[in-house]
């Protein structure tokens, strides 16, 4: 391998690594607030990229059905709770958020999809269609069992992943899609060509990571979210609405997922099940940061991207094996760093 | 005996089925058996020991590929393949178990996810394993010269294995190791304090579940006579877990129920769904995912939890009152104090919870450790028993340093304790809870317990537990679930459990809290009697009447500092103590 190949591999690895880093950030975010190990994070990436790809063909994406069904189910749950607790006034906001909003977005999509729109408009529509699925998913699946042990939440997450990936196949079909690049320009640094899309990926990742850092480190609302993770009961007593914290968190996770999908869509072909492996590689990165530290998770995810890139050069058939086996030394290292057994639940 | 009748009927049905049922259903029955094996392992691992694995399918794959490769490429006997499968699986499970045993519970499942994917791609890319096409031409099994080619014969082999595994797991669960395994879920601190090496036990359970999965893989390989990576992927691993959860992960019979239900449901869905929905898309996976979420929302303990109270009679081996007591500690007299606490300090960050506290406990006396809330009494207990590390200072028991020893080593030396916040396993009987106390008085390891070779020792442990329960006056409650007792009595169960360990030094953390007057008197009488038999007791207590009448000496803590030490009547008159307790009113 000469220096040029090495730099190309590094560049490729960093691009993928940046996407893994976004996944890792979302995973740490969700885990640290809700204690949910969010296996389906990658599905948002796939749904985002595939929704955009469908919009590119000027057809209405199947995502609208998912949005409408999720909204209807969430409304039924909210309505049942409102009836049981004899709070009829809660019905109106429930209907607005769960029925009217998805219906409005669907209407917008049906109207706009066949038109010849510029790419940014289609991207905006993609966000509108997919991101609300995050909070709706929290309302339907996680909020009713928010107090359950981590392990139960983890199994639930895996089940949600199964269901969503099956739905992905139904909605988008088995064929993969690629979306057009944001810019075809290529930046030359010495002999190294930097495709414009990679720069978008780097820029987008840094921006989102920075925004999260500021949100959680500097704002009162971010700190309130963190408090929910540390002590739900205490947070409730301090006036933090834990259900709202969970929904916010899933909103952010879906947002990050869709952003990743939109960013990576032009670089690689996305299938309905691509998100799972991408999300899990983000996991390996997040675990390096013990599912707690944002900066280490980002560094870990970048490392995973680099490792994968170089592994695919040396032993392409074994790149997944190598990437996922990395978790063993990582866990060993975490284990040696832990002095006492971590607290049992 | 109703449960025995039910098991008999089930066995008879399983035995007769192949004679009556068509081939298709026998094959389905064989698959249910294969899945049941894996799910049995998951029930032990997840439902009972509280660890989750998504990667059991990968272990099935190791068992299948080991024998497939050895018997096709090298023409070796399938029986060697079985051993090789066990060995490979054992090593992999051991490594995974060891690297995650010290970490929080969610790292094991996460590592099994990564592991499941890595192994799937490894199977699919290794040329000598046939890549994604797989290996074919695997020989059939022969048993005593009889070739198991027939579907029906193979069905019997599979179900014999299932019931063998089931019986072994039942043996294990009814042993000292079984009680310790149940304690892994929510009682780790307690189990450690009675000498259970919980980390080792977690790894042992994980390896055992993996080995059972490998057995299933071996049977599968020689039944199908063909293997490829697909049935060992991560999603299949999830399906196994799903079977366990639906059936009832906390019950061995739930494993069989779950495996049967899901397998049949899946068959039906595969037949019905394409007709109903027209497409062959993965609707079944969507339904599975949704069903799983619903089960975990609404019936987390599975179907067997609903069946169990209707069918089952817990027929635990009756107590054998004539069994001799298990071995006791040597009680060689020691020169000097039994327990020496010298300038111990514990700092949590900037907060010094225990600040250079020193005191001694001599053989055969009852010493009370008193002080207002937050004085550091329980922290001191935790420092002595090794639950917390000392920041500075030294603790010696019979002249031996305790500092730096883990709780199970301290327990081994003859120090036994109760907890301020009661740590019982609420679903287990009082008898089983107390028998955990006697854990160290038997040396039967995992394998001996698995094959039930510790009968004699086990009888002695249970008899000893029963004696201690009678001794503290809880005889009538012996077979009730510990969680059904009022809090005061639960504290007394804790005392019985501590006594079952045959302690030289007994540490009691607020044993009388929540007891009624008469019960307190009984407890005080019991402790006085123990002292007259040579037991040494250190106790934390708030009830001054209880303490004053019982203890030989008192040590008073306030804000982590030793305020006073002396005879109870001296302490009662000590102005500093009165100041701390009553704010100087006196």
What is the chain-wise order of helices and strands of chain A?
Answer: HHHHHHHEEHHHHHHHH
- In CATH, the architecture of chain A is Orthogonal Bundle
Outline of chain A:
globular
- In this structure, how is the largest beta sheet of chain A organized? 2 strands, antiparallel
Q: How many domain regions of chain B? A: 3
Quote the average pLDDT of chain A: 87
Give the termini distance of chain A in whole angstroms. Answer: 49 Å
- How many helices of chain A? 15
Strand order, main sheet of chain A: write it out. 1-2
Radius of gyration of chain B: 28 Å
Please tell me what the overall shape of chain B is.
Answer: elongated
Percent strand of chain B equals 5-15%
Secondary-structure class of chain B: alpha/beta
Secondary structure: number of strands of chain B: 14
Oligomer designation: heterodimer
Number of domains of chain A: 1
- Report how far the terminal alpha carbons of chain B are from each other: 66 Å
Task: Assign a percent range to the helix content of chain A.
Answer: over 70%
Please outline the major beta sheet of chain B: 6 strands, mixed
Class from helix and strand fractions of chain A? mainly alpha
């Amino acid at each position: 391998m000469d220096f040029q190949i090495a730099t190309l591999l590094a560049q490729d690895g960093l691009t993928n690594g940046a996407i893994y880093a976004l996944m890792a950030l979302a995973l740490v975010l969700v885990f640290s607030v809700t204690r949910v190990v969010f296996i389906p994070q990658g599905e948002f990436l796939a749904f985002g990229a595939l929704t955009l790809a469908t919009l590119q063909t000027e057809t209405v994406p199947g995502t609208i059905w998912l949005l409408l069904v999720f909204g209807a189910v969430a409304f039924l749950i909210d309505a049942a709770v409102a009836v049981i607790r004899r709070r009829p006034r809660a019905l109106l906001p429930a209907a607005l958020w769960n029925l009217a909003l998805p219906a409005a977005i669907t209407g917008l999509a049906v109207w706009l999809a066949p038109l010849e729109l510029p790419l940014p408009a289609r991207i905006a529509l993609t966000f509108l269609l997919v991101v609300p699925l995050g909070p709706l998913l929290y309302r339907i699946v996680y909020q009713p069992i928010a107090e359950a042990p981590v392990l139960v939440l983890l199994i639930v997450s895996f089940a949600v992943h199964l269901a969503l990936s099956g739905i992905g196949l139904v909605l988008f079909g088995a064929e993969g899609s690629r979306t057009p690049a944001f810019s075809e320009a290529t930046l030359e640094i010495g002999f190294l060509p930097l495709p414009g899309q990679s720069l978008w990926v780097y820029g987008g990742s840094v921006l989102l990571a920075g925004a999260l850092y500021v949100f959680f480190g500097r704002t009162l609302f971010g700190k309130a979210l963190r408090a929910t993770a540390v002590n739900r009961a205490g947070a409730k007593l301090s006036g933090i609405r834990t259900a709202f914290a969970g929904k916010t968190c899933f909103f952010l996770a879906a947002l990050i997922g869709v952003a990743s999908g939109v960013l990576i869509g032009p670089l690689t072909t996305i299938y309905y099940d691509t998100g799972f492996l991408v999300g899990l590689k983000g996991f390996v990165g997040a675990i390096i940061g013990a599912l707690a530290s944002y900066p280490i998770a980002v560094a870990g995810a970048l490392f995973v991207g680099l490792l994968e890139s170089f592994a695919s050069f040396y032993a392409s058939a074994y790149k997944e094996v190598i990437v996922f086996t990395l978790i063993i030394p990582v866990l060993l290292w975490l284990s040696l760093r832990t002095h006492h057994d971590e607290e049992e639940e | 005996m109703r449960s025995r009748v039910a098991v008999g009927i089930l066995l008879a049905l399983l035995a007769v089925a192949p004679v009556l049922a068509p081939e298709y259903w026998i094959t389905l029955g064989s698959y249910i058996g294969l899945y049941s094996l894996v799910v049995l392992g998951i029930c032990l691992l997840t439902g009972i020991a509280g660890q989750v694995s998504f990667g059991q399918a990968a272990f099935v794959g190791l068992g299948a590929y080991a024998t497939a490769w050895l018997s096709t490429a090298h023409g070796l006997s399938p029986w060697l393949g079985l051993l090789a499968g066990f060995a490979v699986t054992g090593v992999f499970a051991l490594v995974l178990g060891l690297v995650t045993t010290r970490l929080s519970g969610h790292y094991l499942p996460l590592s099994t996810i990564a592991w499941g994917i890595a192994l799937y791609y490894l199977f699919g890319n290794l040329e000598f394993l046939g890549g994604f096409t797989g290996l074919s031409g695997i020989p059939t099994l022969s048993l005593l010269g009889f070739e198991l080619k027939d579907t029906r014969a193979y069905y019997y082999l599979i179900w014999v294995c299932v019931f063998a595994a089931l019986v072994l797991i039942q043996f294990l669960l009814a042993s000292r190791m079984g009680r310790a395994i149940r304690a892994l879920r929510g009682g780790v601190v307690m189990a450690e304090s009675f000498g259970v090496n919980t980390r080792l036990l977690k790894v042992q359970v994980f390896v055992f579940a993996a080995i059972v999965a490998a057995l299933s893989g071996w049977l599968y390989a020689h039944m199908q006579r063909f293997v490829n990576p697909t049935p060992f992927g991560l999603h299949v691993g999830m399906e196994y877990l799903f079977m366990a959860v639906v059936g009832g992960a906390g019950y061995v019979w739930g494993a069989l129920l779950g495996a049967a239900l899901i397998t049949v449901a899946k068959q039906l869905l595969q037949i019905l769904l394409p007709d109903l929905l027209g497409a062959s898309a993965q609707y079944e996976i969507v339904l599975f995912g949704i069903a799983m979420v619903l089960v975990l929302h609404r019936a987390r303990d599975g179907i067997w939890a609903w069946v169990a109270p209707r069918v089952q009679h817990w027929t635990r081996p009756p107590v054998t009152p004539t069994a001799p007591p298990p071995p006791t500690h040597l009680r060689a007299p020691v020169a000097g104090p039994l327990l020496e606490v010298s300038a111990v300090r514990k700092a949590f960050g900037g907060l010094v919870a225990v600040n250079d506290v020193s005191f001694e406990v001599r053989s055969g006396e009852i010493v009370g450790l008193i002080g207002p809330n937050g004085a550091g009494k329980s922290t001191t207990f935790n420092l002595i028993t090794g639950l917390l590390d000392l920041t500075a200072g030294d603790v010696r028991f019979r002249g031996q340093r305790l500092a730096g020893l883990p709780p199970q080593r301290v327990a081994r030396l003859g120090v036994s304790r109760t907890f301020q916040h009661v740590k019982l396993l609420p679903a287990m009987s009082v008898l089983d809870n107390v028998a955990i106390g006697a854990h160290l008085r038997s040396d039967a390891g995992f394998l001996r317990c698995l094959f039930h070779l510790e009968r004699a020792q086990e009888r002695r442990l249970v008899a000893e537990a029963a004696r201690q329960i009678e001794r503290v006056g809880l005889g009538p409650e012996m077979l009730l679930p510990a969680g059904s007792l009022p809090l005061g009595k639960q504290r007394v169960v804790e005392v019985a459990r501590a006594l079952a360990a045959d302690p030289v030094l007994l540490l009691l953390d607020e044993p009388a809290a929540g007891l009624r007057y008469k019960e307190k008197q009984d407890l005080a009488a019991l402790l006085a009697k123990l002292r007259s038999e040579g037991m040494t007791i250190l106790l934390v207590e708030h009830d001054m009447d209880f303490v004053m009448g019982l203890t030989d000496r008192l040590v008073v803590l306030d804000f982590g500092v030793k305020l006073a030490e002396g005879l109870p009547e001296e302490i009662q008159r000590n102005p500093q103590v009165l100041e701390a307790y009553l704010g100087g009113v006196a």
